[in-house]
């Protein structure tokens, strides 16, 4: 098992980061490769999961051990494959996901691509109570009362993405600032648009 790779980030694509370590170039598939944009051309550590099947071997990479652990747990759920797990991790942080599992929030869980009601139910059955140690109880309790706020935040983020596209920014640029926008404590589309444009101007 390859637990992590430490080397120079030599390239970033829509799906992967390229890491050179000891003369070997590794293509590492990530939920959001652009999280590593600030490290491009520099040395970085990528936490990895080595996925092996009869017909393929793939390295999946993550910014932190929490995302990697959640990815592994998701793969253990019937009906969830690597593609589904990556899409979930790309659209949510660990705290939000664990809280949704604990409150059995099918509406939230089925908002991810490829996740229907049956798969959402299976995730709850397989994961409830097994991930809570990853986040604080206070965070879970707080999240239980903020379902509507989460929906508003998602809608505001979508509006911000659309606005940045309309202004001519490329998908690569937009994806690079999305992780920071998701951390903002605001569900105002106007605020997120202004914040996104400010972040984009800093990267030029």
Automatic annotation (TrEMBL):
Taxonomy, superkingdom: Bacteria
SUPFAM superfamilies reported for this sequence: DNA helicase RuvA subunit, C-terminal domain, Nucleic acid-binding proteins, RuvA domain 2-like
Gene Ontology cellular component terms for the protein in this record: cytoplasm; Holliday junction helicase complex; Holliday junction resolvase complex
GO BP: any one term: DNA repair
Subcellular location per the Swiss-Prot or TrEMBL entry: Cytoplasm
TM regions (residue ranges): none
Predominant place of localization: cytoplasm
Region called Domain III, residue ranges: 147-204
Keywords: ATP-binding, Cytoplasm, DNA damage, DNA recombination, DNA repair, DNA-binding, Helicase, Hydrolase, Nucleotide-binding
Role description: The RuvA-RuvB-RuvC complex processes Holliday junction (HJ) DNA during genetic recombination and DNA repair, while the RuvA-RuvB complex plays an important role in the rescue of blocked DNA replication forks via replication fork reversal (RFR). RuvA specifically binds to HJ cruciform DNA, conferring on it an open structure. The RuvB hexamer acts as an ATP-dependent pump, pulling dsDNA into and through the RuvAB complex. HJ branch migration allows RuvC to scan DNA until it finds its consensus sequence, where it cleaves and resolves the cruciform DNA.
UniProt note: domains: Has three domains with a flexible linker between the domains II and III and assumes an 'L' shape. Domain III is highly mobile and contacts RuvB.
Subunit structure: Homotetramer. Forms an RuvA(8)-RuvB(12)-Holliday junction (HJ) complex. HJ DNA is sandwiched between 2 RuvA tetramers; dsDNA enters through RuvA and exits via RuvB. An RuvB hexamer assembles on each DNA strand where it exits the tetramer. Each RuvB hexamer is contacted by two RuvA subunits (via domain III) on 2 adjacent RuvB subunits; this complex drives branch migration. In the full resolvosome a probable DNA-RuvA(4)-RuvB(12)-RuvC(2) complex forms which resolves the HJ.
Family affiliation: Belongs to the RuvA family.
NCBIfam families named among the record's database cross-references: ruvA (TIGR00084)
Entry protein name: Holliday junction branch migration complex subunit RuvA
Organism, scientific name: Terribacillus aidingensis
């Amino acid at each position: 098992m390859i637990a992590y790779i430490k080397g120079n980030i030599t390239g970033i694509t829509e799906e992967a980061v390229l890491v050179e370590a000891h003369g070997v170039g590794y293509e590492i598939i990530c939920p959001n490769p652009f999280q590593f944009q600030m490290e491009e051309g520099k040395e970085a550590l990528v936490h990895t999961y080595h996925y092996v099947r009869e017909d393929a071997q793939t390295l999946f990479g993550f910014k932190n051990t929490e995302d990697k652990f959640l990815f592994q747990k998701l793969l253990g759920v019937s009906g969830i494959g690597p593609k589904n797990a990556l899409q979930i991790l790309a659209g949510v942080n660990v705290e939000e996901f664990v809280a949704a599992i604990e409150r059995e929030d099918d509406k939230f869980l089925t908002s991810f691509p490829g996740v229907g009601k049956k798969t959402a139910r299976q995730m709850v059955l397989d994961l409830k109570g097994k991930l809570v140690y990853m986040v604080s109880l206070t965070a879970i309790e707080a999240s239980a009362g903020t379902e509507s706020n989460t929906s508003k935040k998602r809608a505001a983020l979508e509006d911000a993405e659309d606005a940045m596209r309309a202004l001519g920014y490329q998908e690569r640029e937009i994806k690079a600032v999305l992780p920071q926008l998701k951390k903002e404590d605001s569900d105002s589309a106007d605020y997120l648009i202004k914040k996104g444009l400010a972040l984009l101007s800093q990267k030029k």
